[in-house]
Structure prediction request, 168 residues.
Amino acid sequence: MSRTRLTAAVALAALAFPAAASAAGPERFETSFTYTLADAVADYQAFGEHAGDCGDFVLLVDFTVERDVARWPDREVRHIQYVGHFYSSADTSRSIVRGGDFNLTLWLDSSGAPYAITRTGLFEYADIDSQHVVTHVGRDELDLATGPISATPKAGDTVRQAVCDALG
Prediction:
């Protein structure tokens, strides 16, 4: 092949696939962390933080979170999976499994600061009597300056009461 034909072929290939040659993919990384029952007890004692009031006791939680993160200049998408437990504050030897699997998108301004959040997926479930009971699923949108844009309602007090009854 002549030098002219080779140069033309290379130039044509570069023009035919410009996106592949110049597109930059997102930055990707993984993170994880654990919030223990000891953390939950300490936060409840110090700040009164809990996951629900069951009358005679409150719900405490522990969990381990795994996040797969992809970041572009205009957004950060986190695929979040967690598993842990609900505990009765009256008897922490009693627990039921809880968890979730959802995406969280942070919308970023030109300086990289988040201005809105979109959350979609299975936000929380509990395993009660060998049944996978969904407590919150759907899509939530939040503008950090003005507040909620739209939200999927939680399953409600009936499910939270079922968690309380299972631990009571």
Observations:
- Helices lie at 3-16, 18-22, 37-47, 157-167.
- The chain has four helices and eight strands.
- The chain has one domain: 25-167.
- The first helix runs from residue 3 to 16.
